[in-house]
Amino acid sequence: MSNSDFPLSLPSLPTNASQLDAKKTFVECDGATYGFNLDLNDCEDARNNVPYKSQQFTFAQRHTSAFVKKKMYPLPHRTMSDKGSCYVDINLEEGQSTGHSSLGQVQIAADAIISRCVKNGIPQGGIAHNIGSYSLDFLLEH
């Protein structure tokens, strides 16, 4: 873990005990990859445009064998700010075909990235790893 990686505790909304895991969720700030000079208000707007729901969803890439339209949340998925200069992306971790999370956990992950990467020092984008059932990543980008 580099000095831009921060351990993070997110409220868990598991639907069963099997979703609990020893992996740690962490935020990585990386302006070179996700952009510098993010506008705090715009990023908070992007986060607020994600509907807060506690219901767990299964996420999968559309047009793949893992995707079943009526039961899955299609990826890629991006929620933008009203100005369109800051957005929240939901992605599967590398090597995963599905992931499980609530949209509330997406908002919480976006909050963590805003707190760690946009409000501290040089405002930059970042990624929250191991969210939900530990198979999703959430990006806050410019």
Lay out the secondary structure.
Blueprint: E1 5-8, E2 25-29, H1 31-34, H2 40-48, E3 56-61, E4 73-75, E5 77-80, E6 87-92, E7 98-102, H3 103-118, E8 126-131, E9 136-141
Parallel strand pairs: 3-4
Antiparallel strand pairs: 1-2, 2-8, 3-7, 5-6, 6-9, 8-9
Helix pairs in contact: 2-3
Largest β sheet strand count, sense and barrel closure: 6 strands, antiparallel
Strand content: 25-35%
How does the helix and strand content classify structurally? alpha+beta
Indicate the percent of residues in helices.
Answer: 10-25%
* Average predicted confidence as pLDDT: 79
**N-to-C series of helices and strands:** EEHHEEEEEHEE
> Shape, please?
globular
Number of strands: 9
First-residue to last-residue Cα separation: 23 Å
List the strand order in the largest sheet: 1-2-8-9-6-5
Uncertain runs are 1-22
- What is the helix tally? 3
Radius of gyration: 14 Å
